[in-house]
Design goal:
about 325 residues; alpha+beta; 5-stranded antiparallel sheet; two-stranded antiparallel sheet; 8 helices; about 40% helix; about 15% strand
């Protein structure tokens, strides 16, 4: 499981994010842009989950009206407008069980706490040719009131009440509200909850496979994380974005360049000629490079977007 923000400062839109994940055609009222991903495949299930005690207006929202309303509530140009949870679903479970498991988990951990969740389950093919089922969960970040979206659930960083300090005397800072929807501690508990949920489901299915939220280092293992599957995920998502923005020639050319960089990076790592630290730095730089490509190319628009004065030339144009 991983968590990220949908941020205006990165040029992102919650309407575009919802359209892509649900493979729908949604109009972004703020930007007056229509995002059309109806030709995108791989979406096996989608639904919007609303708290049981939600006001009447929240129960009548379509996907388009929901995320336009979320976007309209924010005033800052650098606002965090939504949160996305990406959950890898066990391929050992049958498709119906995956859907019911994801729905029950999202309702219990997010919707019952007051968030509206837009759940989309995808099932593309992984690098090994087998299913790669996963769920994208877009979450609202403000409480629901009778009038509309209210305040965000926040926290501050404060000195540890127990008086803990660093070796140099600086106080250890902790979150003032560990129940905040934006709290790292909160999402640490969510990751643990998913580990137990998925493993219980695997046990019921008779599988001996288990997931572990901890890193290899935390588990005392000397193995390095294998970068290939992670790269494959990024490459597939990048390819999906590019198909909406460019013609076939540009797609083929840029995708081929990405593949070449991936092969070169993996070959270097596989030769064992670099230290563990350098290996991890190389992998991190590559992941960051992929993220920059995706950020530069999304969201899709009906026509080319004019560059703002003084904006740098995107890396894919260099």
């Amino acid at each position: 499981m991983n968590v990220k923000q949908i941020r205006r400062s990165a040029g992102q839109s919650p309407v575009a994010a919802a359209a892509y994940r649900a493979a729908e055609r949604l109009h972004d009222a703020r930007q007056d842009i229509t995002h059309d991903y109806t030709r995108k495949g791989g979406v096996v299930h989608k639904e919007i989950l609303v708290p049981d005690n939600a006001p009447g207006w929240a129960r009548k929202l379509s996907r388009e009206s929901l995320w336009n309303m979320v976007d309209a509530r924010e005033r800052r140009k650098d606002a965090q407008v939504a949160r996305e949870i990406r959950i890898m679903l066990p391929r050992e479970l049958d498709p119906a069980t995956r859907i019911s498991l994801a729905r029950a988990f999202v309702k219990r951990e997010f919707v019952d706490r007051g968030m509206i969740a837009d759940l989309a389950i995808h099932c593309p093919k992984a690098a090994d040719g087998k299913d790669q089922p996963h769920a994208h969960v877009l979450l609202t970040m403000r409480e629901l009131t009778e009038e509309g979206f209210g305040q965000k659930s926040r926290h501050d960083w404060v000195p540890d009440p127990t008086g803990r300090t660093h070796p140099d005397g600086r106080p250890v800072m902790v979150e003032s509200n560990a129940q905040s929807w934006n709290s790292a501690a909160f999402y640490g508990r969510i990751r643990e909850a998913w580990e137990h949920t998925a493993n219980d489901a695997l046990a019921r299915a008779g599988s001996d496979q288990r997931i572990d939220r901890r890193s290899y280092l935390e588990r005392g293992l000397s193995r390095l994380p294998e970068p290939y599957l992670g790269l494959a995920i990024h490459l597939k998502e990048l390819h999906g974005i590019m198909r909406e923005r460019f013609g076939q020639f540009q797609v083929a050319r840029h995708y081929r360049a990405v593949e070449e960089r991936a092969k070169a990076a993996l070959a270097k790592l596989g030769q064992g000629q670099v230290s563990v630290a350098e290996t991890m730095r190389t992998a991190r730089r590559y992941f960051d490079w992929i993220e920059r490509q995706a950020d530069a190319l999304a969201p899709a628009r009906d026509g080319p977007e004019p560059a703002s004065p003084g904006s740098p030339t995107p890396e894919w144009e260099r």
